[in-house]
Amino acid sequence: MTFQSFNPPLRTLMGPGPSDVHPRVLSAMARPTVGHLDPSFIGMMDEVKTLLQYAFQTENPLTFPVSAPGSAGMETCFANLIEAGDKVIVCINGVFGMRMKENVERCGGIPIVVEDAWGRPVDANKVEDALKKNPDVKIVAFVQAETSTGVHSDPAVLCKLAQNYGALSIVDAVTSVGGMPVLVDEWGVDAIYSGTQKCLSCVPGLSPVTFSPRAMEVMKQRKSKVQSWFLDMNLVMGYWGEGKSRSYHHTAPVNTLYALHESLVMLHNEGIENAWHRHAKNHLALKVGLEAMGLRFAVDEAHRLPQLNAIVIPEGVDDAKLRSQALERFGLEIGAGLGAFAGKIWRIGLMGQSSSPRHVIMCLTVLESLLSDAKADIECGKAIDAAQKILF
Amino acid sequence: MTFQSFNPPLRTLMGPGPSDVHPRVLSAMARPTVGHLDPSFIGMMDEVKTLLQYAFQTENPLTFPVSAPGSAGMETCFANLIEAGDKVIVCINGVFGMRMKENVERCGGIPIVVEDAWGRPVDANKVEDALKKNPDVKIVAFVQAETSTGVHSDPAVLCKLAQNYGALSIVDAVTSVGGMPVLVDEWGVDAIYSGTQKCLSCVPGLSPVTFSPRAMEVMKQRKSKVQSWFLDMNLVMGYWGEGKSRSYHHTAPVNTLYALHESLVMLHNEGIENAWHRHAKNHLALKVGLEAMGLRFAVDEAHRLPQLNAIVIPEGVDDAKLRSQALERFGLEIGAGLGAFAGKIWRIGLMGQSSSPRHVIMCLTVLESLLSDAKADIECGKAIDAAQKILF
To answer: Which chain B residues are closer than 8 Å to A30 by Cβ?
Structure first.
């Protein structure tokens, strides 16, 4: 057998993540590897922490990227805050709420499920009812930006509720950080995790997290050891903690951290409010374009994520075939539906570098072309004009 | 505050890992990101699996890289094979045996410790005694190449023992794969994990693992769920398993996998036996050079790792100062001692791309220069000649 170097095709990534990675970030990642305890590297780690505080809008000292993808960031929050028998309200309105419930159970916690329909936000009234019925709840957990449905739930309201009832909050912000306001200190979030491959437009593989001082105290006061050695914050902090002396815990993914640093420098240069504004504007342009074509969103306007657009697949259109054609003919990746939404929606990402006028126009053009071919009942020739009115 | 791109200094990495990464691998990593379900990427994943089977010398179908560093690979093996109350013999002769014990405990297992001195290999007689005393032992776990001490323990003997007593084996091969024989099928290893940043000379961040069919069966027959959702093999296999259809579990670290693919293609091109031979030869050259200088190894010749050389720090020499000077003056990273060996040894890696005549000569030159400056009792002017006789 012989093996060749892998040369990936050029794609335009408009699925649920990864999003397009800027050449600056790719170049940064290809810089020479140094040791994970090299003084120069430790200086860069400090900047990554400061820049993540900016991205999360927090002053939490305990802010850093977990050395693994978003799912591991989720597990870091649950495994460190839950001890056996702890009650956790888990809000489920899509795939990632279900994953949270799995995490609670596997950590020995008792999940109290507050369920809302797929495509609907978390209902704060139901959460309050659950808090009233269960005064010993330790944590309220929910997804700010449900990547499986394109729905936004309101962390300001939900975190406030948790506080009012003396509970901690765990927030999934995998798809929100960098693409819409995530105001950790203002909202009083206790633990929150994100991913690098969404609105930060870094490569996948790291999960930024931050913990409030209150959450840190809970972790310090644990009676039992965290069940994961790799994710145990009390150990990880020997490496990512304060001060100049860093002790070995695990070997950090050095080059991926170069990439994250670069993507965060780019976010800082742009200004995070500008990034939020850009995501909102491109979403609006895509929306008017899609509507001009006659396509519908799966989510009410009030609860839509600008960075992840869930579009109802028009009747009679072959989901998998159209996505294949988009990829093969135009190099465009759009996302399939998951779970209850499989075969029913497309997920169109406008995240990070993939949130640009170029992406909006390309997506509208490709959809119009392929849906026409598929004889779908759409309006042709109006989408681009409509979008351009918003964009320029 | 303003932030600049990070430009790391040029280093020569001769510590315990990461080792020098070839520009081919760095370039591969910087290729454009594609989706983790892109058909082209899935084709590359299949090659990564085949190439890892080659690196592990196995036909195990369940062979793939965990999306996180070596410590997570360790946890994958323990968390998937242990259920509450399971007895596990853990052989401790350095830091990584201790970490194994932590893993067993955190998974609810009962560790039965077989201890050997730091710098000594695992004593098979002690393991057999422990197996005789505990006929219900489920797993024997040990470190093939103890990165903290530079000691090799014999997997052929230890895995055979486990089999004779009806136990599974878990082997830490973080520092061995690619640098010395790792013969998974011949030895009958049941679960084994490695790291990408050692003798494979890829960037850090992934942990190749492989499981025997017997281990797969044990995982399928579990009565309890694996405590980690992220590392649960029954779920991960939906993404990394056989066949064309791959379902989303977590977002794979796409670009780091490009890098691993490239480093494995390089290993395959060289031929794994040639790589083992190269590591052995460069080790021998370093050894004769160090001995000509009057330096001593911390490990008996029969049990030394060719890729990780534990050298006794000469009396009166300031450990941290010399390592800093090596880094600042010459850009050379050598490793400190850990745990019981902190301040007593240096760990000199000759791993992957860092196992070359150039590395041997540079290390000898730098050590001779700095130790002379430090007025250590060494012999000058003989090391390079001695090493060259082996090298050329």
So the answer is: 26-27, 29-30
Please list the pLDDT of chain A residue by residue as tens digits (392 residues): 899 999 999 999 999 999 999 999 999 999 999 999 999 999 999 999 999 999 999 999 999 999 999 999 999 999 999 999 999 999 999 999 999 999 999 999 999 999 999 999 999 999 999 999 999 999 999 999 999 999 999 999 999 999 999 999 999 999 999 999 999 999 999 999 999 999 999 999 999 999 999 999 999 999 999 999 999 999 999 999 876 678 899 999 999 999 999 999 999 999 999 999 999 999 999 999 999 999 999 999 999 999 999 999 999 999 999 999 999 999 999 999 999 999 999 999 999 999 999 999 999 999 999 999 999 999 999 999 999 999 99
Chain A positions in Cβ-Cβ contact with residue B38 (cut-off 8 Å)? 8-9, 11, 327, 333
**For residues A175 and A157, is the Cβ–Cβ distance under 8 A?**
no
A80 and A162 fall within a common domain: yes
Q: Which of the listed residues A269, A295, A317 is the one where a domain comes to its end?
A: A269
B1 within some domain: no
Closest partner CB to B103 (pick from A17, A229, A248): A229
- With beta carbons under 8 A apart, name residues in chain B contacting A10: 32
Q: Between chains, do A197 and B268 touch, taking CB under 8 Å as contact?
A: no
At A304, the amino acid letter reads: R
How big is chain A, counted in residues? Answer: 392
B179 and B286, same domain (yes or no): no
Residue B331 within any structural domain of the chain: yes
Query: Which positions ≥6 away from A94 have C-beta within 8 Å?
Result: A118, A143, A146, A147, A148, A149, A151, A338, A339
* Predicted complex ipTM: 0.98
CATH number for the domain spanning A348: value is 3.90.1150.10
Q: Do residues B200 and B340 both lie within one domain?
A: no
Show residues of chain B in contact with A261, CB under 8 Å.
Answer: 5-6
Can you tell me the distance from the alpha carbon of A160 to that of A238, in angstroms, rounded to the nearest whole number? 32
Identify the domain containing residue B159 by its residue range.
Answer: 22-269
Residue A349 one-letter amino acid: G
Count of the separate structural domains present in chain A: 2
In the structure encoding, which two tokens stand for residue A16, read together? 């649920």
Interface test with A, best of B251, B272, B338, B346 (most A CBs within 10 A): B251
CA atoms of A211 and A59, how far apart (whole Å): 10
| A124, two tokens | 């704060």
| CB-CB contact of A335 with B36 (8 Å) | no
Which chain B residue has the Cα nearest residue A249?
B71
State how far residue A255 is from chain B, nearest Cα, in angstroms: 7
